[in-house]
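Morning F.,

Quick status update on the modeling queue. The single chain you submitted on Monday has been processed. Sequence for confirmation:
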Amino acid sequence: MSATTPARGSPRVLRLALLVCDTPNPPTHGDFPYLFRRLFRLALNALSADDDNDMLTEIDITDFDVVHRQEYPSNDDLAALKFDGIVITGAACSAYQDLPWIKTLISFIQGVCERHQGVRIVGVCFGHQVVSMACGGSCVKNDNGWEFGLTETRLTDLGRKVFGANRTSLKLQVVHQDHVPTVPPNFDLLATTSPHTLVHSLLSRNGQILTVQGHPEFPAAFFNSLVEIRFERGLITKELKEESSKTLWADDVDDVWIGKSFIKFLRGQFAE
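Structure tokens below.
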């Protein structure tokens, strides 16, 4: 794993561009800008408590609506390393849908990879899948059906290095029917729930991109409402609803741990 050139700026501030790909339902528990700010705030507080934040005191997030307003960081801002990283949110759409905004997003990701390798990218759920589409991989509906609720993902050797050498697995909320069926070119696998879903987390070999299939930004209250809505709409079975509800309030979910890993990655703190 080789690191790209880190973005230059104040060592006390991490500056991120949040590409907002949807408004999650139920909105009563917050939209993606709120949910990701909450995750990064909790993760930064945890890093500070660990005395492991290397003087980082603030995370500054700028939102870009890539669906309705087609907003993106400018090439000039990316070239000037105004942003240390880009975070791509989840979405109800499938990454393989023939939609103009998804095509534009794929093109943008490809441009960042080609021209702005000092800007790191984190992709979450749909973000994980659309990064695969942009980088020579694929995304399809999973023949194994829904993966839903608190899920334990097994870490590969590289995954243990990225997410913590003392760990063999990570638990986080997941909700997806689509998946990345194979590891894209020039990426390595970090986590899996194979045989259900092979690719749960990826790292590009140049150290620029980190992705996860799950949702570390979803708190339990949000996911509880999400379960009810999915069930009421007939999208999930009663059995799946009851099974996911059993572990909904588990206290060993690794959302903050993954948020800490995101921060370290976006700051270029992973060594080979």
